[in-house]
């Protein structure tokens, strides 16, 4: 086999659900070779921050998420939706259980790094009632980020100070997003927006619930990302600015601009007086910021085993952190 195949590129063409069982082809090196080859693998450094809706602070809100940097990196966000039947049921139960289940199926053979299959399994295992919007993103060692999203959680990739990738929200009508549900009328993994994007070293991923993207503009995201010294600091700064805008009734937010463009506005006579529909949108705000890094890994059968130590433990810790605000 050609020596060139030992150097894996970070941005191969992205394809398909079918992928080789191992991204590391079996190598036949001469046993006389004194040098072990190294290859580059992509990993995520992940920070997160959640600020509940001001009126839901005591219960921790209805957003839930998990993040895990093992095996290159994966994160997921779910936004529990209220306003459905069973008004006495806390929507947080559904979003939290969906995230717990997503986390526990990560190593499932059938899932095999596919976020849409992970969503299918997590949804099937969720017994709480209600519904949630959800996004799951899984980074492959090659640098391909695979995404499955149902509803209006967002994800943007920032490269060299510009948004180079962004997913579109799915909705039935304004303010009614697609949602994974305990009801048959809801959406399933089959309705997910599924896409992948090839990332490079240094790329920044900003993902969040609608509470983030309804309250903050791309230019603000870009400047916070460029000014922050780390992913946790960036996630916190983004969440805090979104929160500040969300309670500002004079801020012309992305949400109020969108509402006006859909013909939601103040009555005509108020318009005559110069009034317009304006203000932030109070909501739970969840932010995940992930930085793509490439690391050199020696071509050695033992290497992978070393890297994967302690996975189960860190998964448990990640889910706990998503529930730190639970009553
Ligand atoms: Mn929300």
UniProtKB/TrEMBL annotation:
Biased composition (Basic residues): 16-30
The organism's place on the tree of life at top rank: Eukaryota
A cellular-component GO term for this protein: chloroplast
Location of the region described as Disordered in the Swiss-Prot/TrEMBL record: 1-30
Needed cofactors: Mn(2+); Mg(2+)
Record GO terms (molecular function): metal ion binding; protein serine/threonine phosphatase activity
InterPro entries in alphabetical order: PPM-type-like_dom_sf, PPM-type_phosphatase-like_dom, PPTC7
Domain PPM-type phosphatase: 48-292
Transit peptide recorded as keyword: no
Keywords: Hydrolase, Magnesium, Manganese, Metal-binding, Protein phosphatase
Family: Belongs to the PP2C family.
Name the UniProt record assigns to this protein: Protein phosphatase
Source organism of the structure: Panicum virgatum
Lineage: Eukaryota, Viridiplantae, Streptophyta, Embryophyta, Tracheophyta
């Amino acid at each position: 086999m050609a020596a060139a195949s030992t150097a894996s590129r970070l941005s191969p063409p992205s394809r398909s659900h079918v992928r080789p069982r191992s991204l590391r082809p079996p190598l036949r090196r001469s046993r006389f070779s004194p040098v072990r080859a190294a290859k580059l693998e992509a990993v995520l450094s992940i920070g997160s921050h959640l600020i509940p809706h001001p009126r839901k602070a005591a219960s921790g809100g209805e957003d839930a998420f998990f993040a895990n940097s093992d095996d290159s990196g994966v994160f997921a966000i779910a936004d529990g939706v209220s306003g459905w039947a069973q008004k006495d049921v806390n929507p947080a139960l559904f979003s939290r259980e969906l995230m717990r289940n997503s986390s526990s199926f990560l190593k499932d053979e059938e899932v095999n790094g596919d976020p849409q299959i992970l969503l299918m399994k997590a949804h099937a295992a969720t017994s709480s009632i209600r519904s949630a919007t959800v996004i799951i993103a899984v980074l492959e060692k090659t640098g391909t980020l695979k995404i499955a999203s149902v509803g209006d959680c967002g994800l943007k990739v920032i490269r060299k100070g510009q948004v180079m990738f962004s997913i579109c929200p799915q909705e039935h009508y304004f303010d009614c997003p697609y949602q994974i549900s305990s009801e048959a009328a809801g959406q399933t993994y089959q309705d997910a927006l599924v896409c992948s994007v090839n990332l490079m070293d240094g790329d920044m991923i900003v993902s969040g619930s609608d509470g983030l993207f309804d309250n903050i503009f791309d230019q603000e995201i870009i400047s916070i990302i460029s000014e922050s010294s780390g992913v946790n600091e960036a996630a916190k700064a983004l969440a805090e600015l979104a929160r500040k805008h969300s309670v500002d009734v004079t801020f012309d937010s992305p949400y109020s601009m969108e509402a006006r463009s859909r013909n939601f506005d103040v009555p005509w006579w108020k318009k005559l007086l110069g009034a317009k529909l304006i203000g932030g949108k109070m909501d739970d705000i969840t932010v995940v910021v992930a930085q793509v890094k490439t690391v050199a890994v020696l071509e050695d059968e033992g290497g992978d085993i070393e890297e994967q130590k302690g996975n189960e433990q860190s998964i448990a810790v990640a889910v706990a952190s998503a529930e730190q605000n639970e009553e």
